[in-house]
Design a protein that fits this description.
The protein has 414 residues and is α+β, with helices and mostly antiparallel strands. It has helices at residues 2-19, 235-239, 283-292, 339-407; strands at 23-25, 30-31, 35-37, 43-48, 57-62, 65-72, 85-88, 94-97, 103-106, 116-120, 126-130, 142-143, 159-160, 167-168, 170-175, 178-186, 217-220, 223-226, 230-232, 247-249, 260-268, 275-278, 298-300, 311-314, 321-323, 331-337. β8 and β9 form a beta hairpin.
Length: 414
């Protein structure tokens, strides 16, 4: 009977633990190595250390990825060694105690609770509420979502509460292994008009998004275009404005004679994923070295000051390029193309130049013809006008001469 009772006790205890694995009640505590786990096993809360540090922190992380910590309580007051106890104070606050029972961190709930309960939700929100009241958001006396660390989870807020003046913000870690507040803070711009509630403005130019167009493509004014000599790797995706598959060469390069480079100005240089750098090499020498290396995709000056110096050579796909519309922005990039592709580009360029010249000549010739016609018409009208006035004067003079002749006395011939 004693063994049966013991088994029943163990089973009941295990059931109780499994049912309350996401909840911590009054007179309960969590020490280093113990955790709360949300009901669907998404998030976990407990004490942790990072790297070689001996300091420990109370935090929340993804259950499947313990290294991904999304919230830290005692960022400014780490615990020495692997110590610390999480429990409730007499007034219902959640407190983190050190080895001497000193309070390292407190939830500072908005009201005194008689039967406080802390629960880790599947959203990653750690909430405190009264055991005998509703567990709705309105009844939470405190929640971790009001105090973000460096991670914005679904359901969190960023911005300013205009009624209370409370501000939600994100603050970076000092380093990968040090969760204390770092140098960067993500906040809303409070200088904006209150009538605007603009909490965050995303980039108006999607070209600012990393790798917007995939490999070997250039972004301009939010749209993607393959570099000359390249074509979409997945044309069907590009038709629906999905550019992540990038571009591939239309004609592969093979280090054959006649290969060269196409110049692209005002470009943001590709990401430095696979490059070689020589700070003392001239641009001409850089070109020669790139031609010798069959893996070299492109080259550019590494330093654009004082006319440019140094050599950067890209040995793989060109990622995250964009063209700037404004002058004096970006750099000049030289992209390797096959001999036949370069010949085709040169032919197209010549045809465009000839076409532009023909059109320009036609326009100029047409304008000259119009000007000539207008000039002739104008001067013809003037001659007609002047000719008409002369005729009138001649006629009048003749009539006066006739009248004068008739008035003279005639001499009779004897």
């Amino acid at each position: 009977m004693a063994k049966i009772a013991l088994y029943i006790f163990i089973i009941v205890t295990m059931i109780g633990l499994s049912l309350t694995a996401d909840i911590l009640g009054m007179n309960q505590s969590i020490s280093y190595g113990e955790t709360l786990v949300s009901s669907d096993l998404i998030f976990e809360l407990g004490l942790f250390t990072r790297g070689n540090s001996s300091m420990s922190y109370l935090g929340i992380w993804y259950k499947f990825s313990p290294e991904t910590v999304v919230w830290v309580a005692n960022r400014n007051n780490p615990l020495a060694e692997r110590s610390g106890v999480l429990t409730f104070s007499t007034v219902g606050n959640l407190v983190l105690l050190n080895q001497s029972n000193g309070v390292v961190w407190s939830s500072k709930s908005s009201r005194v609770l008689q039967n406080p309960v802390v629960q880790l939700l599947d959203s990653g929100n750690l909430v405190i509420w009264d055991k005998f009241s509703s567990s709705s958001n309105e009844a939470y006396s405190w929640q971790s979502f009001d105090y973000p660390s460096d991670t914005l989870l679904a359901g969190m807020k960023l911005g300013l509460n205009l009624k209370t003046g409370f501000e939600w913000r994100l603050t970076a870690w000092k380093s990968m292994d040090d969760p204390s507040p770092g140098d960067y803070v993500f906040v809303t711009d409070r200088s904006r008009s209150a009538m605007s509630k603009l909490m965050h403005e995303f980039p108006s130019d999607s070209c600012n998004l990393y790798d917007r167009c995939g490999a070997n493509a250039i972004c301009s004014l939010g749209l993607c275009e393959c570099v000359k000599g390249f074509m979409p790797r997945s044309p069907d995706e590009w038709k629906v404005l999905e550019f992540s598959s990038g571009c591939m060469r239309t004609i592969p390069t093979n280090c054959s004679k006649g290969e060269g480079f196409m110049e692209i100005k005002r470009v943001k240089l590709p990401d430095l994923l696979d490059v070689t750098l020589n700070k003392n090499m001239s641009l001409k020498k850089c070109k020669d070295e790139c031609l010798k290396n069959c893996s070299c995709m492109a080259y550019a000056n590494s330093d654009i000051r004082d006319g440019g110096s140094g050599c950067l050579m890209w040995l793989g796909d060109l990622i995250d390029m964009r063209v700037f519309e404004k002058q004096n922005y970006g750099q000049t990039l030289y992209i390797r193309l096959s001999a036949s592709e370069l010949d085709a580009i040169r032919d197209r360029t010549r045809r465009k130049i000839i076409l532009v010249a023909v059109i320009s000549s036609s326009i100029i010739g047409g304008l000259l013809s119009v000007v000539t016609v207008l000039w002739c018409v104008k001067h013809r009208k003037r001659r007609i006008r002047i000719g008409g006035k002369s005729s009138d004067r001649t006629s009048s003079s003749s009539q006066e001469t006739i009248k004068e002749f008739k008035a003279r006395p005639r001499r009779v011939q004897e």
